[in-house]
Automatic annotation (TrEMBL), chain A:
Residues 600-657 are annotated as: Disordered. This is TBC1 domain family member 15. Keywords: Acetylation, Cytoplasm, GTPase activation, Phosphoprotein. SUPFAM superfamilies: Ypt/Rab-GAP domain of gyp1p. Its main location: cytoplasm. Acts as a GTPase activating protein for RAB7A. Does not act on RAB4, RAB5 or RAB6. Signal peptide: none annotated. The keyword Zinc does not apply. It is found in: Cytoplasm. One of its GO terms (cellular component) is cytoplasm. Residues 314-524 form the Rab-GAP TBC domain. Residues 639-654 have a biased composition (Polar residues). It comes from Mizuhopecten yessoensis. GO terms for molecular function: GTPase activator activity.
Automatic annotation (TrEMBL), chain B:
The keyword Transferase does not apply. Pfam families: Ras (PF00071). It is an enzyme of class 3 (hydrolase). Residues 192-208 have a biased composition (Polar residues). The lineage of its organism: Eukaryota, Metazoa, Spiralia, Lophotrochozoa, Mollusca. One of its GO terms (cellular component) is early endosome. Belongs to the small GTPase superfamily. Rab family. Residues 183-214 are annotated as: Disordered. The keyword Cell membrane does not apply. This is small monomeric GTPase.
Amino acid sequence: MIKLDVIHTQHRKMASQSQVLFERDGVYIHVNVNSTTADKDAHIPGRVYLAQKPEGSFIEWKAEDVQSLDSNQNDQEWAVIGTTCSVGYKPDKDNVVSVSSKAETRKRYNVSFDILDLKSFKRNAPNHGWAYIIFILKDGTTYPALHFHSGGSKALLQQIGKYLHIKRSPNDSRLFIVQEHDPDMLSKSFDELHLFSESSAYRVTKFINDPYTTALGGFAKVTNFLRDSIMTPENVTSRPKEEVAEILQEDIPGMEISQQVEAGFEVVTKTKLPNRPEVTRGQPLNSQQWSKHMDRDGQIKDVEHLKDVIFRGGVEPCIRNEVWKFLLNYYDWQSTYKTRADERKRKVDDYFRMKLQWKTINDVQENRFSLLKERKCLIEKDVTRTDRTHKFFEGECNPNLQVLNDILMTYCMYNFDLGYVQGMSDLLSPILVVMENEVDAFWCFAGLMDKVWENFEMDQKGMKCQLADIHRLMQFSDPELCSYLESHDSGNFYFCFRWLLIFFKREFSFSDVQRLWEVIWTERPCKSFHLVICLAILDTEKTTLIENKFGFTEILKHINDMSLAIHLEETLKKAESIFLQLKNSKKLPATLKEILGMELSPSSSTSSSCKTTPIGTPINRESTPKLELPFQGRENGLSAPSSGSGTAVTTPDDSSLEILTDNADTAMNLVYN
Amino acid sequence: MANRAGAQRPNGATQGKICQFKLVLLGESAVGKSSLVLRFVKGQFHEYQESTIGAAFLTQTVCLDDTTVKFEIWDTAGQERYHSLAPMYYRGAQAAIVVYDITNQDTFGRAKTWVKELQRQASPNIVIALAGNKSDLSNKRMVEYEEAQAYAEENSLLFMETSAKTAMNVNDIFLAIAKKLPKNEGGGAAQPRQQGMKINNSETSQASEGGCCK
Ligand SMILES: Nc1nc2c(ncn2[C@@H]2O[C@H](COP(=O)(O)OP(=O)(O)O)[C@@H](O)[C@H]2O)c(=O)[nH]1
Ligand SMILES: [Mg+2]
């Protein structure tokens, strides 16, 4: 007989036989799911537990409201959240829906895991007001940060320290890794060096082909190994208490010894590229600035400067619906009030003409038009599940869903060859929220699709190319991380798929996505800035990925779980400084320049970069001729007519590959001495 | 603490084998793949489950007599457009659940296509289960139970009608798969996750089949 024993502890109430060893309330999860949510909803209060259960020791966090809302269905093992929700719709829309859907959203955040599944955690220095802890499991699961508003994080970690042997990462003082308890840990470490396995042959060939990258990856491993053997005392069991004591010493920054050991390869990585310059972000473009940029006829003056400002700070929400029309080629930058009025009229007519084309197809026709019918179904399915937690789309029978649907159907007629592809509704939704108008949203969406249609093509070539482009960029910008990913089945960078396909739409809150998109649409400081943003996020996660020894699945899971936990402005700053670092490097290969879209000299367009210049976008929009910026303007796009505000300080590229061999030797000596 | 050595987990299965299997979910968009996984792994159901972009990875452990079976579950995007990425996920999988929506005949046709593709391209010993999901919507049923069952029998598939919404048969289908998977000692070659996941490389032979038991 099968024992129906799925491990579902997190959704049961604390069973009576489980013993709570530690609990603390005032522990919050911060959600900034969307900007329209009132502030009080952005912090979910809850309680953290350490509980001893028959099946093991568990760390749990439960939202407070959910506990009380739950109490009437206490014994129900499988809580069906959706049912309560849909029942609630009929009688009293406002009231019931908000309570039950709130419960639904909150419950999603509940945390529960066996302490033996813990792989690592990140704890910030609590001088930002309070401490938070991010737990990361062995399978890559990454929970949202638990914020200890009224303290207690130390006490919890002290408890955890009784079970696990924890070490602080030498590379990131906030990261703590659970050590394996394997008695033969040392021999395992040897295995990880691959010195004696069959893969060493592979390494050797690789070394010949690409000595630099391979060596770096190798060094990292050797130093890690050294560190492990130096830092791991014989008697593991006696350690935990001291280690925890050390964790709790906020002021002692990690372990000096290992940092010295690490120094060798630090030097190597750092000398390769020029420093990353400091950059600052600016204020969003406001309505006064915007109107000052228009002359009497309504023509935009000094477009380049305007784009610089938008790149540096975005656009204030109240003028978004105007500015985005320019960024998305709805209006020409050279247009005037007069030409814009004409243009808009044309667009309205054009839209309704195309909308009629599918609206007037009756059921009989549709039955013989399977392709259209298929797309109609697909769109319907996706519209009902796009951003339904956002105010603009929430609730059953929300009329905005119909608008979303109609725009996507009309886009099908506008670009039938491409059709509807999953992901498009995600791209449309923030635009519709800004435009609040069907026709305007359609044309802005069409403008965005002109930029990204290749991502949605049948053969997925556009996506594969971009993934390969990130790989190439990282080979140059961070060979160490690159070689780590390659040796962990992740050289295809497939974990960036969602980022690229829908431009980070699922990774940031709604308002952050709008900010990010307007920054990217300026095509500053280079055309493919979104690829550099990928590098920046991965750079932030580097220590976590490497020190947790994550492989393909764990990396993908960790990256997926980072949704809504990425700091936008920090990421943008880092991405720009990585860009400047690359740009300042004399050795930046032409192919990379081309991937980045930095170089526009016509002669270089035949190089091997993946990027194919489309021979005309799929649609010829006679009505809106594509605006071509003058060459000059784009080439200096970055430093162009210095915007004054926060222009980066750049350092000349004085260290480069030549020195590298020397440093590699030094590193080698360091390792083998 | 003392009990660490014995790895006392999960659900008190102190002794016994631990098997790890890779399972992939396939099927047309919006048939309920993500919902089935969410139900199985977290016991939840979201009416407005957002569409899957790329792929998601989840794990869940079940106990089967004295064996602990750990599922490594790949949930994929269903639209035809993303078909070319599917082999990356089913390569090396020991089990697959092909899902259709009982209220939509087309999704059943698409499920058959997936089964054919798996039979041709996936590991030869892959355990395939067919799930007729949304069984709670029987008033809108378009695919008859008997029809699907007959098809499943012809192709030696496990078959159940499921509902991610009411949880009906969700655990059961995973458990039935767990039961059918080979759990013999040393059945598998290398660790399943050693296998590379490479785009554009579907020619390479499947490295290992069968589970990996320790
Ligand atoms: N009534 C009902 N709806 C379901 C069931 N499973 C999924 N759904 C709904 O079907 C839609 C698509 O589900 P999803 O899991 O995203 O499908 P996927 O695209 O195959 O992953 C969502 O709106 C779900 O709420 C079910 O068993 N019964
Ligand atoms: Mg899905």
